[in-house]
Input
Amino acid sequence: MYTRFTDNDIVTRQAQELVTSTWTNNTNNLQVAWTSSAQADFTTPTSSGQFYIDVYNDNPAAEWLGSTVAANSNEVQYSIAFGHSAGSGSPDFTNDTGSFGLGASRVTYNQYRQLHYNDDTANFTFGTHGTNASNPPPSIYVININRSRYKQRLTKGSLNLHLSGTTTGIAQADQQIIKLTDDSVTNPTGVGSSNLGTYYNIVSGADGTVLTGTTATTQVGTSASYGNFYPEAGLIILNADAFGGPRLKPAVSAGGPTANTDRNPLKLLQSISESQYFIVDTTEEINSQFYFCRVRNDQYNYTNNESFVDNNKNIRFETMKLNPKVFITTIGLYNDSFELMGVAKLSQPVAKDFTKEALVRVKLDY
Output
């Protein structure tokens, strides 16, 4: 037996935005940065660590070390990479003539400029930095939030990333802690559009607001920003040239097998780990539809349980013929072809007989 919904039985609620922390277990501030030695490997020019480093919320080896932490709580939160348009800052894949500059940093730079510009010749610019010969294309640090963590998009104005180190721009706290945010509150229209959606400047400040007395492109030198923030892609691309000192300044010596002994991706990882301050939220639009399942007194008073009928489909128990008593435990939602599309489980069974009616509200979120 099936009951068709009428228009009055289905109610759709306007989409609502749900904002939560991006990190596992709804952690607000991700203060830890665990890595896997198997993944963050720099043994050869083609080792995975040369291209990116996965960052976990807990020790990825916990289940083997006898930790009480559940194995499934160790999840990748984001990945870190380093890129350079000419391939500096990473060892060449080979040492053959004509191969110089062909290494992980060049691959990474090409990958992200294709994502941004859909052009393998365009270069990243931050303000006017990278637009001419006196301002050559900058090297980049990349923080790529894990796709499963940011749901639909990162929440604009929620980024608060602290880095341990110094900058070539605004001094903060004796140049020991660099406090970065996106400028979506100060500049809600963003820098412009890209293949990754609207993007915003990474600036010195907090909660989406540029540091008082400055603008996004006057913080590094006289015309550059700290990078770009792509909320729809869960991506942060930092202007690596904005950072100075041994802690964060990337090593961009010419290629060759001995280049990049400083392992550039590790520089940003160590800076984030030491600062112990990485906050960013995620936004998800939740659409809800309500189905009101109305059960009249003369409906659904018999069970489909095969133990109640004999081989001839006759009811076994006399009491069930005239005074049936059953319990509703599950509601199935079907399409017009009578294919089961969804199942709703009641929190507790609902008694049903000819003297009772029921109204069950089924909520479907998507």
